[in-house]
């Protein structure tokens, strides 16, 4: 079942979750091009699609991707095997600092296969 949570009370906080949810996409469902106001991570639980950001197209299957505020992005579910994803959006005055301690700002597509902790 799809769900969405949204909260816009983030001004002055170090870090908060402002949205999260899950979506089972229809074939070819797309979002964008758009620039988001906060950081988001989309985690693909099954299926596949593509993510476009920074002038590149990334094929996505079993991966996750980071959306950075202000960057023009677009993503689209595969026609034959559309993805199911969960997302979390976060904002705050320290998020940029936290992310700069990782490789996500340079490499926005990543895979987490250590365990199933973040799968629904």
Give your account of this protein's structure.
- This protein is mainly β.
- It contains one helix and ten strands.
- It has one helix at residues 95-99, and strands at residues 3-6, 16-24, 30-35, 39-46, 48-53, 56-61, 64-67, 72-77, 84-91, 109-110.
- The protein has a six-stranded antiparallel β-sheet with strand order 1-2-9-4-7-10, with no helix packed on it.
- The radius of gyration is 14 Å and the shape is globular.
- 19% of the residues are buried.
- The model has no long low-confidence stretch (mean pLDDT 88).
Quick one: how many beta strands?
10
Order of adjacent strands in the largest pleated sheet: 1-2-9-4-7-10
The class by helix and strand makeup works out as mainly beta
Number of H/I helices? 1
Globular, elongated, flat, extended or rod-shaped: what is the shape? Answer: globular
Alpha-carbon distance between the two ends = 11 Å
Largest sheet: 6 strands, antiparallel
Encode the helix/strand succession as letters. Answer: EEEEEEEEEHE
- What integer is the average pLDDT? 88
Q: What is the alpha-carbon Rg in Å?
A: 14 Å
Proportion in helices: under 10%
The low-confidence runs, each spanning 5 or more residues with pLDDT under 50, are none
Estimate the strand proportion: over 45%
């Amino acid at each position: 079942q799809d769900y969405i949570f949204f909260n816009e009370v983030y001004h002055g906080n170090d870090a908060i979750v402002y949205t999260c949810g899950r979506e089972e996409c229809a074939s070819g469902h797309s979002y964008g091009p758009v620039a988001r106001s906060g950081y988001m991570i989309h985690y693909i639980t099954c299926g596949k699609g593509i993510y476009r950001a920074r002038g590149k197209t990334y094929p996505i299957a079993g991966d996750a991707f980071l959306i950075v505020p202000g960057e023009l992005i677009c993503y689209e579910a595969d026609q034959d095997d559309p993805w199911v994803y969960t997302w979390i959006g976060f904002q705050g005055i320290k998020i940029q600092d936290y992310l700069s301690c990782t490789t996500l700002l340079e490499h926005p597509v990543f895979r987490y296969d250590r365990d199933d902790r973040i799968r629904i």
